[in-house]
Write a structure and sequence with these properties.
40% of the residues lie in helices and 14% in strands. By secondary structure, the protein is α+β, with helices and mostly antiparallel strands. β1 and β2 form a beta hairpin. The radius of gyration is 14 Å and the shape is globular.
Length: 105
């Protein structure tokens, strides 16, 4: 699903799924394994006015996502992936597969 904006200050968003994001937030943090304060961290390509698909989200706690020295936002995707030894594409695919399996039950 895709929604296009009409004005210059509105977002162009792709593949929004609140149910999937809610499920991601029930998973432990991918890096530190805490189960508190989990956020759906969008990964992948994004640009001005564009947020990557919800299906690219990984479960990260606030410090691992935004505020910690080794957080996704502080290091950037490539450096964060290298620092934590995370294959982002493989992890995104694994979460999506697990979600789909749970929904099929």
């Amino acid at each position: 699903m895709m929604s296009l904006s009409k004005g210059p200050h509105e977002r162009l968003d792709f593949a929004r799924d609140r149910k999937y994001l809610a499920w991601i937030r029930t998973q432990p943090c991918l890096t530190c394994r805490t189960t508190r304060g989990i956020e759906a961290a969008h990964t992948g390509k994004a640009g001005m006015g564009i947020k990557s698909t919800d299906y690219s989200a990984l479960p990260l706690c606030g410090p691992c996502h935004r505020t910690g020295a080794a957080s996704y936002h502080n290091l950037g995707e490539r450096r964060w992936s290298d620092a934590w030894g995370v294959d982002i594409g493989a992890r995104v695919a694994a979460y999506r597969e697990r979600y789909n399996q749970e929904q099929a039950k």
